[in-house]
Amino acid sequence: MAQELQDGAAQAATVTDAIDLHELTVIGIAHGATGQTAILRSSNGDYARVQPGDSAFGLTVRAIGEGQVIGTDRWGRDVQLPLMTG
What we know:
This protein is mainly beta. It has one helix at residues 2-13; strands at residues 25-32, 35-41, 47-50, 55-56, 59-65, 68-73, 78-82.
């Protein structure tokens, strides 16, 4: 019985193809006492909590806004990463 509940909960919480596992993805954005914070997921499954000025996974975060993280990649290109949906 307990295993059936666990399996059902896992299945209900899983959305197929909700995020591209091969790209840097914004998992969440929060506003706290220290300002905006974003959670990034790298293509190899690592996570980082970042704020403007922080660097993670080759991205330097310049701003965190409504539904997106704006930064500069390791080659100096501007990048806008949208918050994942699903």
